Automatic annotation (TrEMBL):
KW Nucleotide-binding (keyword) present: yes
Domain Histidine kinase: 241-455
Upper taxonomic lineage: Bacteria, Pseudomonadati, Pseudomonadota, Gammaproteobacteria, Moraxellales
Official protein name in the record: histidine kinase
Organism name: Fluviicoccus keumensis
Swiss-Prot/TrEMBL catalytic activity: ATP + protein L-histidine = ADP + protein N-phospho-L-histidine
Length: 470
């Protein structure tokens, strides 16, 4: 259709050329008229192409004889006399049309290269935000459809070479990264050929998407390997901790129990009572380690949600201090909790476990007879708990690791699995709070827990509950 439109422009161009040459010839010589026809040949060669310019060249020689040379409106010269003129015009038309076609082709190729580069860049940028193979494939097919302005189909199986595939189609393969290959069929619009450049463009886009899928598959494999390694390492740490840290209390329990069984009658009442206390204390110590381990596993589950009951913080503190005083009778526990603190929505059993673990750490790593303080207060919309001891503290280099599972600042020191602080952080974080450790200026270590206080709302809170009960 475009070529016929170019040929349809020949008559108007010839008519305009004759009119301009006649008008110019009224006050110029015949040479000026010849230059008008030459200009028409040059312009038609550049804008209309080779075929229309040859026709204009041929008719220009005839029209020049008929309209511009005397006698007018008749052939006054032999055609052989115009062979040179025709030859010059024809050579000019051929040369200019070839140069113009080459220039247009280069411009078109440059535009296609720019469009391909832009499409590949857009595809690469979109691939970076894809999360899995399905999203990568969907985005890749959408970009291919946009780049070729056509329909893209993922075939159930590859198209055979002798299956009668229309020539206007392009075929490619998309590797999923899991060893599978998806045949892709691109149906080009009517009149658009399956050129080598288009095939290379499709291959480049599919290759880019395939590499993105392979990278995603590699990331998933690496992540799975890391999780497996972490699981194995955690299992090994748990077994090592259980075998090492439970050996001491088990040995004490077995020794005390065997002494009572073998020579219990020979011991005094006070000695037998001491052995029974050893068994009870060491059994409680083992129970605490097992409960810490079980609670840590439970809290690491992403679906876990702590309870949300209205509690007075002084009751939780009192329960934790009572437990600690029974276990660590050689320490002086000092409590400072104001009476006007607001109620807190929390899981009281888990929050008590936090305080028990912090008090246990303070007692284990501070000398007998030293003071352990537990204080509570309010800072804006935060409830703050502080547990301070008079022990040696923790080196600054170890502070970033103290909340890691099974980490102990003094591995060769007192027994323990290194799960207490890890469990504290998990519980406090589950309540939306934060926990930090710091070395105190007067010596010792301070553990600071901040828990968010609920915002007052109508129809909620302890006041509303009291009204309902009343």
């Amino acid at each position: 259709m475009i070529r016929w439109r170019q040929y349809l422009a020949v008559p108007p161009v010839l008519a305009a050329t004759v009119l301009v040459s006649l008008g110019l010839q009224t006050f110029q010589d015949d040479v000026s008229a010849v230059m008008v026809y030459m200009l028409a040949v040059v312009l038609s060669s550049f804008f209309l192409g080779q075929g229309p310019s040859v026709l204009i060249c041929l008719f220009s020689v005839v029209l020049f004889d008929v309209f511009n040379l005397q006698p007018f409106l008749e052939f006054s010269r032999s055609p052989m006399e115009y062979l040179f003129t025709f030859g010059v015009m024809l050579a000019t038309a051929m040369t200019i049309s070839m140069l113009a076609d080459r220039l247009r082709r280069q411009v078109h190729e440059a535009e296609e290269r720019e469009a391909r580069a832009a499409a590949l860049y857009a595809l690469s940028a979109d691939m970076a935000s894809a999360s899995d193979n399905h999203e990568i494939a969907a985005k890749a097919l959408r970009h291919v459809a946009q780049a070729f302005a056509c329909q893209v189909t993922v075939l159930a199986e590859p198209v055979a070479a002798d299956a009668g595939v229309p020539p206007a189609g392009l075929d490619g393969r998309l590797r999923t990264g899991d060893g599978d290959t998806l045949p892709v069929r691109v149906t080009l619009p009517e009149g658009v050929g399956a050129t080598a450049s288009r095939r290379l463009h499709l291959q480049a886009m599919l290759e880019q998407a395939s590499l993105a899928m392979e990278r995603d598959a590699l990331r998933r494999k690496v992540r799975a390997a890391e999780l497996k390694y972490q699981e194995q390492a955690l299992r090994g740490q748990i077994l090592n901790a259980l075998s090492h840290d439970m050996r001491t209390p088990l040995a004490a329990i077995i020794g005390a129990a065997s002494s009572l069984l073998d020579r219990g009658d020979s011991y005094s009442v006070e000695s037998r009572q001491t052995l029974r206390k050893i068994i009870l204390e060491e059994a409680r110590h083992m129970q605490g380690m097992v409960e810490n381990l079980l609670d840590m596993v439970r809290l690491q589950d992403g679906n876990f949600r702590p309870g949300q009951d209205w509690q007075a913080i002084e009751e939780i503190v009192a329960g934790a201090v009572a437990i600690s005083r029974r276990r660590f009778v050689r320490h002086d526990f000092r409590v400072s909790v104001p009476d006007d603190l607001p109620l807190l929505r929390c899981d009281p059993f888990l929050l008590e476990r936090v305080l028990v673990n912090l008090l246990e750490n303070a007692a284990k790593y501070s000398p007998d007879g030293s003071e352990i303080r537990i204080e509570a207060g309010q800072e804006d919309r935060w409830l703050v708990l502080q547990v301070s001891d008079q022990g040696p503290g923790i080196p600054e280099s170890a502070l970033p690791q103290v909340f890691d599972p099974f980490f102990r600042a003094d591995p060769e020191g007192l027994s323990g699995m290194g799960l207490g602080l890890t469990l504290c952080r998990l519980i406090v974080t589950a309540h939306g709070g934060e926990i930090t450790l710091e070395t105190l200026a007067e010596g010792g270590l301070g553990a600071r827990v901040r828990l968010p206080l609920p915002l007052p709302a109508s129809g909620d809170g302890p006041a509303a509950l009291a009204e309902e009960e009343g």
